[in-house]
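#struct-queue
[09:14] JT: dropping the first one here, sequence first, then the structure tokens:
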Amino acid sequence: MLYLYDTATQEVRPLAMRQPGHVSIYLCGPTVYGPPHLGHGRATLVYDILRRYLTWTGIQVRLVSNITDIDDKIIDRANKENRPWSEITHKCEKIWFEAMVALNVEKPTDIPRATDYVDQMVAMIGELILRDGAYVTSDGVYMSVTSVSDYGLLAHQKIEDMLAGGGDREVFGAGEKKHPADFALWKFTKPGEPAWPSPWGEGRPGWHTECVVMSLQLLGEGFDLHCGGADLRFPHHENERAQAAALGKRFANHWMHNGFVVDAEGEKMSKSLGNVANLIDLVQHYDPRSYRMLLLQTHYRSPVRVGQDNIDASVKAVTSIDGFFARLGELANASPPDEATLLAFRSAMDDDLDTPGATAVMFDAIRRANTAVDAGDNATAGALAHAAREMCTAFGLVVNAFAAVSDDIAQKASLIDEARASKDFATADSLRNELQAAGYVVETTKEGTRVRRG
């Protein structure tokens, strides 16, 4: 049985299933106003690993992950660039999914877009008003947090200690709030902004309203797991939960939050490497599997630093796995997987998704399999290799056996290094894009650029 830390109860407890053998998960997805950063990549990969592991154990998973395609940040960018807001969301959503494909993230079961659920949001807000859980002001409709007896559960704070909510989003209409932590459910539209009709006036939904409606609409009350980055715990997730509670609905049964991507001093960040400004840069400049490997070797609740040294180490790690399976060949399928190894693997994964411990089990199996091959014990080597392959599958880690590349491809790899050495990054990127378009994986390390078939 899988045990996970629950942010609400602050304890590691079993992930209970509303329906035996089925897990329902809601993951807060991207707000599509710019390129995804490393933190977005971490959140998505953590829960992709969780989903793949659950599936590997035989559990059916329904993962709902939304697209926030109407939001203050989107409107701000549209106004600054004098572009239609929908043009920005369509382009950024396309970029998002291209990054997810590169990272081998399995597509969610459902991908609701906020703009497709505005009518349901209006209906929910109307019900909250009728229940005295919300009120209308001159600039919108606000949630009354004092109507929820345990408001602050996820933040582990008492309501009297709270200041104005909203996170890094605009604190909207603070002057007319009944309580500093009250938050906007509906924002009346300013001239030139997108608008939808409502009984209170044209406007758009608040960020916190979007996810609670989509999760309940698609997964129903009491769904199994709500997850996202630690920065969403409060106020976003708390405000989702508050709306459901005010409606008398049972919301998520379990809350899961991953840690931040941080810099060398431990501060939250979005970028770290000199040539990596966002997630797109990372998958273009390095083997995309390296980020998954780096995160596998860090517990999901811990902060993770993304730097040149550990990206290079992760590239080396996935390359060594490729080399191992290339060496073992058909031996990896000749014997049943080693049961003791898989038992140790599952024990680690079931202990609050201890991927560092599980990864150590995998690399130990690879080491022992190599030793067995050297000793001529092909049966043991095959069983351990088969177990290692199973673990890669559970991790979502694609194995690419090495194959020799032609001289002209190898020459282009050398030209990339020459261009980088002379700081001609435009030429280096052009060559890299050319190789990637031809189906090659291009890996940049301290030792130079390596190319292999994808």
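[09:21] JT: and here's the second one, same format:
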Amino acid sequence: MENALKMTVREVFEVLYSPVNAFKKIIEKPDFKAVLLVLLLVVASMTIAQYVVTSKLLLENRAPENDDWTEALTNQHSWLSNGELSIDDTDYQMGNTDGNHSITSSTLTETSIWMQVRDIDSINCSEETGYIELFFWIKCSHDAELAPSSGTLKLFSGNEDSYFESDITGLLASSGEWTNITLNVDSDQGWTSTNSPDWQDITGIEFRVNWSSSANLTMKIDGLFFRKYSSPLVTGEFAALLPAILIEVVLNTVMDWILWAGILILVAKLFNENLGHWNVFFVIIGYSFIATVVYTLVTVAPLSTLPMLNVPLDVNAFNALFDASWRLLPAYQLVSYIPVIGEVWTAALGAIAIRTLKEEMTWSKAATIAAVAFAIRFLLRLFLGF
């Protein structure tokens, strides 16, 4: 039993360095169990590659998970202001996937406007385990279109007398324009504190903007949440998705194997060549997928050099970040080309398998059949997605 297993493994890997000899042995004694071994190795290699990619990603986690705080004046939370509060369903920033309202406050003949959201439970912003950023959109309007003279943001801890404070004057846009602000939160980010607030217990937020002259003022807030980034390897998300990943890899590999072998057989028939029993040929082509194992493992090296990437929930934001952070890196571009080289290698093994089955066929004809089959396979993937 042990000797038989060693011979099977040897034949599988012999396809990589001596494919003609390996295919001759397989033709004499086709072994479907060896194809299952190849399939197992493909699954293992792709899982390793996926693990390496996942180790480079930090997924965004929000509090609240959705845009709840700027979708209603009261819920678990409550909004307060020195102006008249309302919900605006026409002027907002987060979009339909995260909500379609902003919180608005308007005052008459004032020099300042403030808004508070209270009763937001207890948000942990401690350095080690808590949320690290506060994200929000803000729009401030002055009747005379004057820019704000100053702006502050407070994070309350327990009550209104205990808070952290940050100056946001330089981050505010001109009057009447939305601006996105992301503030780092924890003890090392330059916040001033009053009455010993606790970063592990943030219970409210206040926005306050001042002008040098009085006017009718408006403030709007949208997309307000704390966020942090966590590795899916640590949170268990990768482990939870692993069964689905394995099933997808198995199904894709089996489909690719069937399609590739089937296309080769059909193209050979177009060239008036009969490749014999289809089951024998399918086993041979199954062996050739050991090349997939090799080129997949080769991609692990450049993947491991990629920098960590914070993955936002917003798809558009992720695409922009991906383009700026990964897409242009030589390592990522190399990862994009390696599978193409690997598929050409698999096609070359297909040509060798055909020539080994039909020794009377010329090498050029076998290569032509494999090339035409490769082109058909490429077009199927390009236009039909499989």
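[09:30] RK: nice, looked through the second one.
[09:31] RK: The mean pLDDT is 89.
[09:31] JT: good to know. Residues 2-60+236-384 form one domain.
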